[in-house]
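[audit] Reproducing an earlier prediction to check determinism. Same input, same settings, fresh worker. If the tokens differ from the archived copy the diff job will pick it up downstream; this log only records the rerun itself.
[audit] input (577 residues):
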Amino acid sequence: MGTGLRLGPMLRHVTESTATIWVETEAPCRVTVTAGASSAAADTFTVHGHHYAVCELADLPPGAMLPYEVRLDDAPVWPEPDSVYPPSLVRTLDPGAPARVLFGSCHTSTDHSRTAVLRYGVDMLRAYALRLADQRRDAGGAPDRPGDEEPSLLLLIGDQVYADEIQPRMKQYLADNRERASVPADTARPPDDEVVFYGEYAELYRQAWSDPDLRWLLSTVPSLMLFDDHDIRDDWNTSGSWRRDIAETPWWRPRITSGLGAYWVYQHLGNLSAAQRAADPVFPKVAAAEGDAAAVVDAFAWRAHDEPVSYRWSYRYDVGTTRLLMIDTRCGRIVEDDTARSMLGPDDAAWLDAQLTGDVDHLVLASTLPFLLPKGVHHLEAWNEAVCAGAWGRRLRPRGEWLRREIDLEHWAAFQRSFHAVTDAVLRVAAGERGAPPASVLFLGGDVHFSYLARARARGGPARGSATRIAQLTCSPTCNWMPPALRRTTWVAARGITGVVGALMARAAGVRPPAIDWRLDQGPWYDNSLAELTLDGRTAEVAWSHSPLLRRATEEFLPGATARPQVRELVRHRLTD
């Protein structure tokens, strides 16, 4: 019996002529991927007993959509025999075609049963996969060129897995696995309902990405990813106090080491081009290791946590005349001193500032956390940061820290130094001080479990009167909708009067007013959703889709049945003239 795929294939980083395929296999082997006249092969590498390969197809034609095959030691494993899905396609970028970028965040893997849908809502990634499969069938399975509805890219911006809010089958896996395995002597008993060790993370990713519909989607749509807190743990790196408290937990070191190591293997490697992987300080060592490279990955992951400046998780991706910046807002934070907090370390901040230039049609900044929140929330977070730093006296600092953790006051607004630095740079880009101004500067975000569009403009100084459109596009969640009580709270936070009150509080704490003004033009919406940003020359348009399902219809599911969700457009908005 031959070696099989444990996970994948996943279509990751693509260019006009290259495509990256990532796989996890059941045993060490040689992986070969073939698409048209192009073929690529790689030996697997091993981390903690798990086996992976990254294959880079080259010399592909621009704008191609080519069926591909995966072989392990020359035995075909993909496409699977008798698959109900259309062929998985390698899709390269077409510089002359509009770029259609799907994005969303916060995905809980469920079984799509009645209970799951009532708790988490319809899985929008699954709904989109089913619709795309139908479109491919209607087009004959493998069209020569992309149709109008074909996505160019899928951005998964945060919480691809929930390591601290696990599903019943993952909890059962932990119970069974830990009963068989021995926990290291220097590690306290880990929590029963949280992932701690690398093998557990590997299983968490397997359960999240082996759903048949999602697996097919990830095999045929290029994807880029970023982590957020639940990929590691809720409130990860929210403050220096949080880091000191969690460091006292005996199982924290294996948890953060396993979480960052698994993220690097399962998500980050596929974000990189072949040249970037070759220049990566870790990948060549892992690929060249004889036997298991666990020690290399563990040492890297711990250092990335202990010395955030030691590795850059942020990266740049160009789509035609659009520059996409995927920005790490978690691991690289500087939070030890509440009076000198920064969302980005000094090297990351310098890197981002260097990328914020004109001479592109669109400048897109994607971070898991929205840059522009509803004003009431923005000012509350800015006020809280100032209180935690001592603006209202030392006695209130602990209460400010309690509030920060209790209601997650940890977005860009809670890092005012970073917020103002990025704002000032963006306004100078829009004013034409850093090259020809783009048609738009767009912030993409997730995390908050509601979706909205906010338009922004300069208050004065650089960019006042500029033709560059600045907007925040937030899409969250894809599958993990917000409970009704919290929906009412966020609805109040989005009202204008809440913003006025918040601004007065922030001013009383000495917070510098923002150099831009913004308001919610659309939203908030609370259904699970997936957004599509279409960039065509100097024009930009965004649409949010959801899958409406009446509670009554859900309650009428037969036991064990799952519904076939439909994708419906929620709203569409033209961003540029």
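[audit] rerun output stored. Observation attached for the diff report: The mean pLDDT is 92.
[audit] end
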